[in-house]
DNA sequence: AAACGGGTATACCGCTCTGTCTACCTTCGG
DNA sequence: CCGAAGGTAGACAGAGCGGTATACCCGTTT
């Protein structure tokens, strides 16, 4: 049973790993959910396979039946992070909060503002993994870069919709603001999102975009039904919680 | 005997670690120099004590005579990074390239532009260490945050000199641009520094600062005597290079 | 009924890492 | 001359890591 697994276990999450071709196992899902929590908060190098299987309540053999090696789990984690965080949370939340493209760009930092205030703020897993993996050729590192690029694609689409002349350059600039504010938040600056928003505002205006002020500070924040943050409903502290969490 | 050690071995680098009170040993200096290269390029978690002592050509016993534990070496490394990178390179280079405070702020990104193009670009060790150390209370993590704050102090001084109204807020914003561009460069965007510079320019103007254009693009780059980059003259590939570098 | 696929539990291997310990060598000052 | 300080070399302990192997259990399918 276990209350509501993070993802409905439905379809193939791509990159075939499972031995017999079926990646929709319950055990696999528990592992992935446990890995999501642990990896996103403690980093992929800081969490061992033993911790994950203990937290997932799964046998080691079962783990290695679904993932050839730890690296494969990490790659699967990054993909799930994109589903849950990038798409299921950030993009959804932004799209929900504003309609005009330039307002959506600004809304990113309003979403970040809430995020940075969370006591269990984890930072951006893509950045974290990228930076804790030194070797340039690494699979995991490249995957992180790809997922970051996909965030940039979202920004670029918004820039195009806003009629900005050089959407790629603009998206990369906006991404610099996002990444910079995330690192600043990790450093402890809880106001980082507001600062980044202000920079973004001047940047938009310099770009010739007319941005109708609907609150320079906080948003009206009427109804916002989505998102209980991008965290999957973690399976309630299963089984042996391992020794040294 | 070993060509020009990175620092003249002269005075106390604070935080007494050495057993008998003298931290000006030659062996200690070799260790610190080796650690600087390895840590800054491969991360502090990715480099073991064995690699360091092999690269430094020093016995293990000697290492532990000077550093109670690896953590103490890491802290010493961060301090040296501040001396060599923050002060000896970034601040010196910026101060050398421009005189007016607003020009110095912009010069940061011109210095970064050169830096990002290096093939052995290592990123900001303070950010790297901060992000690869998950636990919030950690000594090393806090030390990294402190060193980052000291960079911000430099920015704040420049902001004050430029007559900017809220220097702390401005410094934090500028730092967001710096950190964001560094991460972007780590991701592979070699133009990140120029993008950040452009953002900074609009930000300065929005702040009411008159910035006389002396080249919107590249600088005149006349004489610039300082800096062969912040890298200490690494002791030429000493001793046993260990097995698996 | 038998076979099989997937799950559990646990021991184990080999490697790496931090840190200690033994033993010897060199230099230098009283 | 001798002893202490600081150095070298290398074995070693103990822990954690990723990954494998053994043995058993259970439900479904054939």
Question: What can you tell me about this protein's structure?
Answer:
Two copies of one chain form a homodimer. Chain A has nine helices and no strands. Chain A has 245 residues and is an all-alpha fold. The first copy, chain A, has two domains: 26-70, Arc Repressor Mutant, subunit A (Orthogonal Bundle); 75-206, Tetracycline Repressor, domain 2. In chain A, α1 (26-42) crosses α2 and α4 (70-97) packs across α5. The first copy, chain A, is elongated. The model of chain A is unreliable at 1-6, 8-21, 216-222 and 233-245 (pLDDT under 50). Chain A binds chain B through residues 41-43, 45-46, 123, 127-128, 130-132, 134, 145, 148, 169, 172-173, 175-181, 183-184, 186-189, 191-192, 195-196, 198-199, 202-203, 205-206, and chain B through 41-43, 45-46, 123, 127-128, 130-132, 134, 145, 148, 169, 172-173, 175-181, 183-184, 186-189, 191-192, 195-196, 198-199, 202-203, 205-206.
